[in-house]
Amino acid sequence: MKSYLIAFIMVFVAWFLTDFLIHGIILKAAYAATAALWRPEAEMNHGLSTLVTAIVALAFTGIYGALVNPKSMAAGLKFGMLYGLAAGVSMGIGSYCYMPISIGLALTWFVGSFIQMLIAGAIVGTLIKTSLPEAS
Questions:
Q1: What would the pLDDT profile of 62-75 be if each residue is shown by its tens digit?
Q2: Comparing C-alpha atoms, which of 131, 114, 6 is closest to residue 72?
Q3: I need a labelling partner for 123 at 20 to 30 A (CA). Which of 15, 37, 84, 105 fits?
């Protein structure tokens, strides 16, 4: 279980840092240009956002641990790529379908999500070598 906990923490930290890079630096001007779409900074719920990131990191780590066999760096990267494709299409292209955002913003969300999941796949593939114990 120790490897799962370490993997979860590392995935969470990696996502937290890359979220700051993607949303706080790379997309800062795009968000300013579309300010009418977003809550003002004072109204944003950063605590809830952090909780959501933690829950998704826990789910990502748990799904890999429970369902991916055999476990390896290659398996982790494949899992990260597939999860990233699903998350990226949903976040980027899916949002573009319903929100008045630029295709550039949508594609950055897609690529950013894909890269984040690839990094997470590398983390779980490196750290988790055994399956989760089955519940009795």
A1: 999 999 999 999 99
A2: 131
A3: 105
C-alpha distances out from residue 94 to 31, 72, 110, 117, Å: 18, 31, 9, 17
- The CB-side HSE value for 108 (13 A sphere, CA atoms) comes to 18
Cα–Cα distances (Å) from 49 to 16, 46, 53, 132, 136, in that order, read 10, 5, 6, 27, 34
DSSP letter string over 29-95? Answer: HHHHHTGGGS--GGG--HHHHHHHHHHHHHHHHHHHHHH--S-SHHHHHHHHHHHHHHHHIIIIIIH
**Distance of alpha carbon 122 from alpha carbon 103, whole angstroms:** 28
In contact, 119 and 80? CB cutoff 8 Å: yes
